[in-house]
Each structure stands twice: as structure tokens, then as C-alpha cells.
Amino acid sequence: MKREFYVVIERDEDGYYVGEVTQLKACYSQGNTLDELMQNIREVIQLCLEEEQVTNLNEFIGVQKISV
Predict the structure, then answer these.
(1) Distance between CA atoms of 7 and 28, rounded to whole angstroms?
(2) Which helix (H) or strand (E) holds 19?
(3) Using 50, 70 and 90 to split pLDDT, how confident is the model at 56?
(4) 54: how many CB neighbours lie within 10 A of its CB?
């Protein structure tokens, strides 16, 4: 059974793409390109799922922009 996860992606000060799966604890990776990031994060997701017995995932709601 395949599961779907949302990856929040940012670009850091060194130009690396950094991705985090907020539905899983400590599930993040980086890459020089978006393709590399997605390959890396896929591997990390698999490791995170193996490490913990995931029964109740946090529900991803979305991202909103706010000005202050």
C-alpha cells in the first residue's frame, strides 16, 4: 500500500533545496537540485516509516502567507 506525503521545500542560504515531511518526526533532507532532494527525501521517508510504528500521522493542512 502506497502512502502520500507532503514535502515542504525551502532553499537555504547556500543554495541547497531543503525538504521536510511535517507528517513524520525528524523527516527531512536536502539536495543540490529538486530531483536530488526528492530522491533523498523518498529514502528518508522509507527510513522514518521503518524506524517508528506509524499509526496516527499528523494531517497536513497547508501553508499560508502572512504579512506583519
Answers:
(1) 9
(2) strand 17-20
(3) low
(4) 13
Instruction: Give 11-46 pLDDT, tens digit per residue.
Output: 999 999 999 998 888 899 999 999 999 999 999 999
The enclosing domain of 60 has a CATH number of 3.30.160.250
- CA atoms within 13 Å, Cβ hemisphere of 42: 7
Domain that holds residue 19: 1-68
Q: Record the cell numbers describing residue 45, joined without a space.
A: 521517508
User: Is the torsion defined by CA of 35, 21, 59, 1 positive or negative?
Assistant: positive
